Amino acid sequence: MTGAERRETWPLWEVFVRSSRGLSHVHAGSLHAPDAELAVRNARDLYTRRSEGVSIWVVPASAITASDPDEKDAYFESPRGKDFRRATYYTASESVPHL
Amino acid sequence: MSAATSPTASPSEASKLAAFDALIAENQRIEPSDWMPEAYRKTLVRQMSQHAHSEIIGMQPEGNWITRAPSLKRKAILMAKVQDEAGHGLYLYSATETLGITRDEMLDQLHTGKAKYSSIFNYLAPSWADMGSIGWLVDGAAIANQVPLCRASYGPYGRAMVRICKEESFHQRQGFEILLALMNGTEAQQRMAQESVDRWYAPALMMFGPPDAESPNSQQSMAWKIKRFSNDDLRQRFVDMIVPQAEFLGVTLPDPDLRWNEDRGHYDFGELDWDEFYAVLRGSGQANALRLAKRRAAHDEGAWVREAARAYAERAASSERLAS
């Protein structure tokens, strides 16, 4: 057995931290851990050392399917040129109160 | 949650309830993993699923007008708005699922008529001006109702509402500008706008629900901080907002009792026809049967798409297994 083969390969986990009650869990970063329980503990030690959170989620990185970053422009093209989805597009009613 | 359904309160349940009450008292949010009283859960499931159903059924009156909207620009705007409503329904269904009910159960309740949706969508929208009135008055009332819900005590509901309110900011303006264009148009167009406002004004005011005295569930919802303001308070706030808007448009709001009350610092307005409200709620509105039939048909006719997608995913998964 070579050294490279003996190397430990713990799976990668993505860590999501809720900074306070009422807010969403937000992606904080990732870490390696042998199982989910240790991943949560390591995440606490790694990502909440300054009380950044009140709740942690860990998700196996392999379970995440992502869009292709190289396709970014084409993939997200549709909303472009559709300013009418924003209130600021409607200028005729700009001065109307409470609108 | 088994603790919540147990009929007798054990000491541990009493302490859980105390913890829940303390969170509510401190204006904190309740999250899906927290213990909560069964009645709180039920109230939320009813309100949130009804809210989701309203978004889904709410696509119909405007969806009907996409092909007939008077310009490409108006079609594009209307499509964007109907897309938003579909999206808002989906945010709310997902948030409701965190309470332990499945999407299929909710859809069944909608399709069998067990669950309600907002009665406003049981009115027909026969003229183009109705797209303006729906945006200005119906979405306006919905927004007045929804803004305080961003602070609802149940975390997933509040967060869904934040997203929804942000996206809806254009809905009311686009409706207002449809009416503004008509009011700046020919006499016939002005009449069309006024006739539409005449039909939508009272039903929009009724969207806030029955008067406080006849709304017994409201008080509990306010104690739980799901609801932040009473039906009558929200209705008053809405009337105060739309009067100057109506003046800007040059339309008359069809209420002879509508006038500024200096002492109250609010507009007084006339009694609403609550018999009509309850009749529509019971099913005898203009479009109750139509809306539900169309929804059921859309679901049934979409079955093959869901089946095909599932078959495709299963085949892809099994060929992946074979390859590995």
UniProtKB/TrEMBL annotation, chain A:
Gene3D superfamilies reported in the protein's UniProt record: Phenylacetic acid degradation B
InterPro entries assigned to the protein according to its UniProt record, in alphabetical order: PaaB, PaaB_sf
Pfam family, one: PaaB
Top-rank taxon: Bacteria
The protein, known as: Phenylacetate-CoA oxygenase subunit PaaB
Species annotation: Promicromonospora soli
Species lineage: Bacteria, Bacillati, Actinomycetota, Actinomycetes, Micrococcales
Automatic annotation (TrEMBL), chain B:
A GO molecular-function descriptor: phenylacetyl-CoA 1,2-epoxidase activity
Annotated GO CC locations: cytosol
A Pfam family annotated for this UniProt entry: PaaA_PaaC
GO biological process: phenylacetate catabolic process
Full protein name: Phenylacetate-CoA oxygenase subunit PaaA
Originating species: Promicromonospora soli
Gene symbol of the encoding locus: paaA
